[in-house]
Amino acid sequence: MSLASAPFGLPATDEYARDWALVDVETSGLVARRDRVLAVAVVTIGPDGEQTGEFSTLLDPGCDPGPVEVHGLTAERLRGAPTFDQVAGRIGAMLQDRVLVAHNAQFDYDFLAHEFARARMWLPVSQRLCTLALNRQVDPPTDDMKLGTLAAHYGVPQQRAHDALDDTRVLAGILRASLREAARLDLPLPLVSCPPRAESQFTPKPPKTPCAYRNPGRMAPGGPLLQGMKIAISGETAHARAELTGRAVAAGLNMMTSVSRHTSVLVTNEPTSGSTKARRAAAEGVPVIDEPTFLRLLDDVRSGTAHEATTTSAPITPPTKGVQAAEPESFTLAPAPSAPSPGTTTVPAPRQPGFPAHDLARPLTGRRVLVLGGDHTDAAAARTRVVELGGSAAVNLSAGVTDVVVLADGEKDRRMNRVVALQLPMHEASWLTSPNAPDTTVTTVTTGTTGTTNTPDTTAARPKEPHVLPRGGVIDLPMPSGTPAPGSAPGPAPEWHLTVSWAPQSVCEIDVVAFILDEDEQVTFDEDFIFYGAPESPAGTVRLLTGGPAEQTIALDLSALPPATRKVVVAAAIDGPATFGTVGPLQIGAAPGTSGPPLTRATLDAATTERTLLLGEFYRRGPLWRLRAVGQGYDHGLDALARGYGVDIAD
Q1: Which of 19, 210, 233, 359 shows the smallest number of beta carbons within 10 Å?
Q2: Residue 616 — φ and ψ, nearest 5°?
Q3: Full set of structural domains in the chain with CATH
Q4: Spatial contact of 395 and 585, defined as CB atoms under 8 Å apart
């Protein structure tokens, strides 16, 4: 199939008509900093939708090609192909001044960035568009978001899966159809800015071995040191810092790069230097000792308490279908910061019992409802009522929205004209008291008028809807198929993606972060805090992925987390003076893998003044992993939230 013979048909607006460079890479593995590109294809398309260029080539990676059963590229096929540095100039010229487009664009972008770096060149990309993220916004009625599934849905022929050039041509058809749907829904494109790549910032450090002992707390006056104590060092030292760190780690101490309220002792020869660590130690009351004292105490470090091993031999209870009620003994929110803000709210107790997804008595089961207008309190209450009635509360207009509830001034929402054009059923707030059946007459609000009309048919075939979690609700993550080895429990799916989305913002930016916590609700070391400045844990088990200005994802390889890890908390924070009362609700959706079908979804509202919001937590329950929708807000910023978990964010 040649795109030259198939009109691309892009929407003729500045938002959607751009110079595009569609890219696909086949790789020897999944880790960009380690694995190599085996094949690359680029197709360029102009604003008028016409193809302007095409290039593809196999590459000699100089290493084992990896999973041949996936991509079919054996070492023999790659022998004699050019190396990446030999074609980097041509690829760069095709990418220059164009928007890079790929399915799971961060993956392709990361691999290209590393290959260009190896060739001592910069990747000439300033913006990228992910068709996976775009289709999450569009929300077509498909079982999943895989390239082949979307191709079948949009009627794009696919000839050779995992062939870079054919996948790029298929991607072109998917982009065409996705942009048409985005234009129909008046959706802003999820473009991601790509500043020049700084490897020192983005390349993870070698894995750090977690400390085997629990933190016993602060050192008593005069010592001794106990295994598991968190130690920080500041300023000049007589002995090399690496030597001090090595001796401390060998003795069973946990060496940290910052000071928090969980730090056991700060080692410094300059306690009045005014360094960040010294100031934080003084503010938190952390004990301070000098280097000679530390060396003396290292000779007699007392035994500590080992981390509790995760139980894997207990019998596994089959997961209950649908939403579960949270167990009171395990319902633990984030640790309160040392000085809680006056406006801090508390999350209500989980509903008892949880709402089963198959309860036909709940009239909104299987429906997606968008609430427009109203103040924050009224809108949050309406969304809560939608969930109580079995529905899912949407945060953005998409093809999956079946109903719209219009509160005060809702007709002024910028999406209202599009809602009217799409003929979506619109309802007043009273509809949530006793929703009508789908085929009956409803009260409909249009711009400037109120009248009665028949509900259009919104029952287009859709796959099974995700479970809807209320705030505080819990769901078991399904175990993989197959029989585990004798005496062991099966692990979770290889990777879970928790995607966070919100309405596009013009007054602030939202950062999604994650904390990897032990049984004491603390990070084991500073690198267990995942954020925009350190988007990947050292071992690569938890990663931050950016799908657009209104979507970010935390990817977790739960099976590879250390046994001492008990919980991974995902939170959001606002950069600047705005609050979540201004932003409105956030939606979280959990899915296995990059493009798997979502298992569950929750819409979370904070109150009016919060600047940080706990979204969800993955936690162990015996051999199982569970996900809880939290929805706990705090008035303070991300720095205070991080300190509560044992991390200090440098100014």
Answers
A1: 359
A2: -160, 165
A3: 3-201 (3.30.420.10), 230-298 (3.40.50.10190), 368-454 (3.40.50.10190), 466-644 (2.60.60.30)
A4: yes
Cβ distance 395 to 603 under 8 Å? yes
- List 323's β-bridge partners, or say none: none
Torsion angle (degrees, nearest 10) of CA 218, 220, 223, 225: -30
3-class state of residue 411 by DSSP: helix
Specify burial of residue 371 (Cβ count, 10 A radius: 0-12, 13-18, 19+).
Answer: buried
| Cis bond before residue 224 (omega within 30° of 0) | yes
Tokens 């595009």: give the residue.
20
Indicate the burial class of 527 (C-beta count within 10 angstroms; 0-12, 13-18, 19 or more).
buried
pTM greater than the 0.70 cutoff: yes
* 637, 643, 647, 649 alpha-carbon torsion, rounded to 10°: 40
Predicted confidence (pLDDT) per residue in 77-125, tens digit: 999 999 999 999 999 999 999 999 999 999 999 999 999 999 989 899 9
Picking from 503, 530, 489, 485, the residue whose alpha carbon sits closest to that of residue 645 is: 530
Q: Report the C-alpha gap between 18 and 69 in whole angstroms.
A: 36
pLDDT digits (tens, 9 = 90+) for 263-304: 999 999 988 888 888 988 998 899 999 999 999 999 999 999
**Under 8 Å between Cβ of 73 and 165:** no
Distance CA(226)–CA(215), nearest Å, equals 9
What tokens appear for 511 in the block?
Answer: 């950062």
- Where do the H-state alpha helices sit in 142-262? 147-154, 164-185, 199-202, 241-250
Sign of the four-CA dihedral 249, 252, 253, 254: positive
Run of H or E including 603: strand 600-604
Per DSSP bridges, beta strands 600-604 and 551-556 are: unpaired
